[in-house]
Model the fold of this input.
Amino acid sequence: MLEGLTTQTPWVKKEEVQRNWYLIDAKGQVLGRLASKLAYLLQGKHRPDFTPHVDQADFFVIINADKIKLTGKKLDQKVYWRHSGYMGGLKLETARKLLEKKPEMLIHLAVKRMLPRNRMRPKLLKKLKIYAGPNHPHTAQNPQPIEI
Done:
């Protein structure tokens, strides 16, 4: 019947991946919408040759992380917690305190928690560079500005 007409799905090998650098300005962006778009782009799902088990992530430089927006009452009601492992070692801080102290961490945690929990998550997060101000040390890589 149609024996010679079937096509194979092209699987990309890690050596064949072409990585680009992109610059994203987070000024005035809503945190959750930016993080979900970044998680989608970091996995490489926007590529026509997407392969689930291969790291196809481009490099993303996020600037102006201190000017990110949170909607509603999330600045005061959203609580980030971590635990030292010792009794009574629970540390709590609101999104407002985290934004004042470490604004890069706010975006990092949002993107991290939207990525799949597997071995590729740490590798993908290494390709995400976040800076609080408008300056970054990646000018030599010539990142292309994109709008999200």
